[in-house]
Recover the amino acids of this structure.
């Protein structure tokens, strides 16, 4: 029985690994993607209305010409996402369908032994650089340079530019995880725009392949990889998503951590509104939207009338993880007199959205396409992909609420 389980486990991991390590007929997936893109409001706005069909077709032909024969799954995944990126529509996405290694499999010794001895694992993309030399080179990089050494609890990753591909590669230098070995590439940063990068990465635990657009590298942070010595003052680590408190006689503080379209948030939004609707009476009001990934305006916009009634000064805090509806909310708050926007640029993913959120599997079965079907172009397109810049950028050296209180005191 044990032998049978081991064989099944080995086959399972071979399937998981080869799904992203093999080749695929990417041209069929590309054609499918383009069909879905042409149905999106962003295509109609940016391509048809701007008379850019010829340029769009030229870009398509460039990618299609490289797909006359099957190409690697990783290359196909990158190409499909780059084709999607011809539209400034950062809600739309192409994702990998295989979820990779499960928590149960990670805890299974036989399963992991089978995985790390598989051909796909051993053939995962690797750097050609000497790791000792690379680590020494990156250790000397300035803390504000994107290149350098980044950490998680289990991994040390060196980020350096590959001069041949002109991509920044995240190379595993040290690993406490059985799923990674030194020399393997865990992510790529590419196509820098407005100070941010598109990122193709492999989840540290499941190894699922993921593509993320416009990733911020500010303050030594690349997703969950952080440079040594970095203080995360731009992050709000509050476990509570709805916070209202009196800081002192003249300052009140509100934290909106989520506007997501769930029943729990819907209920919390109503209860929070009822709690604070008659309580806003301070001269200064801090409205904290850090880490708010957005959601439904039904859970955010009712608070606008309360803030419009407030005769004091409003201070809106955002970071690079303030996204979607939370960004739309930021723009609306900035239109209220006596409002100052502090912190750092928002994510830049607010001009379009999903009402239904249907995923469509590509012909290969390896990828799924999530198109947008909601149009907020006129009100918010100027910020799409760029983010909303604060009136005053806060330092990463000290707590942001403390910096705001210092501004108030002055």
């Amino acid at each position: 029985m044990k032998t049978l389980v081991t064989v099944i486990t080995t086959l399972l991991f071979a399937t998981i690994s080869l799904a992203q390590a093999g080749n695929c007929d990417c041209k069929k997936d590309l054609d499918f993607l383009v069909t879905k893109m042409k149905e999106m409001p962003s295509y109609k706005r940016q391509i048809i209305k701007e008379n850019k069909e010829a340029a769009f077709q030229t870009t398509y032909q460039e990618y299609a010409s490289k797909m006359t024969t099957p190409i690697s799954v990783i290359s196909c995944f990158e190409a499909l996402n780059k084709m999607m990126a011809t539209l400034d529509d950062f809600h739309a996405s192409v994702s990998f369908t295989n979820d990779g290694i499960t928590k149960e499999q990670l805890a299974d010794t036989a399963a992991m032994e089978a995985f790390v001895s598989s051909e796909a694992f051993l053939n995962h993309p690797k750097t050609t650089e000497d790791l000792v030399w690379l680590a020494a080179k990156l250790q000397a990089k300035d803390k504000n340079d994107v290149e350098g050494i980044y950490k998680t609890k289990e991994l040390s990753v060196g980020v350096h530019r590959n001069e041949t591909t002109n991509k920044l590669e995240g190379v595993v230098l040290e690993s406490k995880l059985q799923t990674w070995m030194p020399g393997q590439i865990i992510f790529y940063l590419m196509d820098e725009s407005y100070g941010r990068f598109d990122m193709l990465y492999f989840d540290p635990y499941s190894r699922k392949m993921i593509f993320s657009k416009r990733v911020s590298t500010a303050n030594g942070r690349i997703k969950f990889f952080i440079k040594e010595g970095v203080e995360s003052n731009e992050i709000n680590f509050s476990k509570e998503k709805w916070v209202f408190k009196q800081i002192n006689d003249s300052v009140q503080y509100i934290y909106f951590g989520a506007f997501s379209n769930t029943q729990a948030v819907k209920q919390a939004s109503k209860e929070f509104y009822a709690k604070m609707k008659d309580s806003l009476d301070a001269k200064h009001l801090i409205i904290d939207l850090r880490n708010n990934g957005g959601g439904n305006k039904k859970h955010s916009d009712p608070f606008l009338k309360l803030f419009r009634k407030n005769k004091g000064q409003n201070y809106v805090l955002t970071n690079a993880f303030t996204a979607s509806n939370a960004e739309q909310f930021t723009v609306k708050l900035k239109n209220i007199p006596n409002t100052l926007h502090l912190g750092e640029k928002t994510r830049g993913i607010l001009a379009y959205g999903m009402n239904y959120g249907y995923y469509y599997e590509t012909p290969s079965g390896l990828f799924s396409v999530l198109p947008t079907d909601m149009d907020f172009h006129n009100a918010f397109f100027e910020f799409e992909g760029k983010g909303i810049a604060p009136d005053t950028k806060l330092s990463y050296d000290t707590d942001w609420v403390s910096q705001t209180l210092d501004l108030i005191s002055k």
Notes: Residues 2-227 form one domain. DSSP finds 14 helices and 21 strands in the chain. The longest strand covers residues 167-175.
